[in-house]
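User: Let's play a game. I give you a shape written as tokens, and you guess the letters that built it. Ready? Here's round one.
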């Protein structure tokens, strides 16, 4: 199944790292950094990879706040 979603450019690298070639960028980022992508989701493991990409992004972002 192909799913189209919007994400921020900062988060795109985490999705690409976890999903590899299953991510296709559909347009250029807008003025707020939002970008439309399509994701090939073949099952529950792909959904879990998307979730873990979000967790990795959150952990890295919060680490930057607390570690200076």
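Assistant: Ready! My guess for every position:
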């Amino acid at each position: 199944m192909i799913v189209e979603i919007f994400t921020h450019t900062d988060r795109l690298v985490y999705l690409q790292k976890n999903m590899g070639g299953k991510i296709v960028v559909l347009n250029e980022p807008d003025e707020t950094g939002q970008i439309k992508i399509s994701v090939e989701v073949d099952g529950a493991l792909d959904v879990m990879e998307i979730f873990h990409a979000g967790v990795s992004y959150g952990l890295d972002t919060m680490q930057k706040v607390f570690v200076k």
